[in-house]
């Protein structure tokens, strides 16, 4: 198992969440993704911009930040740590705009999956794509529950 596969096994794409080692190996292959390293304070998603990929955080810490308008101060929405994901909406809604900005707070790395590579993955490996999407849906459900708790 590669270092990247091992790190991903600690988060959303873990065996515990129903994602097999085979699926992680396929996802981390150069055919479907790339590991990107970020220096401190690098923006990887810009609020209002078009998200370009889904990212699974491997190392470092990212901050999700938002501002109501250009004059309003930035507001920290949350910390994104290894094993979490960023930009998932872009896989399901290509017309979407980013609802927040995300930047690396320390030297960090993430596995980048573009919509095109996700589509190719789904076509060539449907059973593994189902594992992947099911795990992503669990992660989204968890975020929705957490958001509901904050509001209620």
Defining traits:
single chain, 152 residues, alpha+beta, Jelly Rolls, 4-stranded antiparallel sheet, 8 strands, globular
Write the layout of secondary structure elements.
Elements: H1 3-8, H2 21-27, E1 34-38, E2 43-45, E3 54-59, E4 62-66, E5 75-80, E6 85-86, H3 89-92, E7 101-104, E8 108-113, H4 115-124, H5 126-151
Antiparallel strand pairs: 1-8, 2-7, 3-6, 3-8, 4-5, 4-7
Helix pairs in contact: 4-5
Overview of the molecule:
The protein is α+β, with helices and mostly antiparallel strands and 152 residues long. The chain has one domain (3-151): Jelly Rolls (Sandwich). 35% of the residues lie in helices and 24% in strands. The protein contains five helices and eight strands; from the N terminus they run H-H-E-E-E-E-E-E-H-E-E-H-H. The chain has helices spanning 3-8, 21-27, 89-92, 115-124, 126-151, and strands at 34-38, 43-45, 54-59, 62-66, 75-80, 85-86, 101-104, 108-113. It has a four-stranded antiparallel beta sheet. It has a four-stranded antiparallel beta sheet with strand order 2-7-4-5, with no helix packed on it. A hairpin with an 8-residue loop joins strand 4 (62-66) and strand 5 (75-80). The chain starts with a helix and ends with a helix. The mean pLDDT is 89.
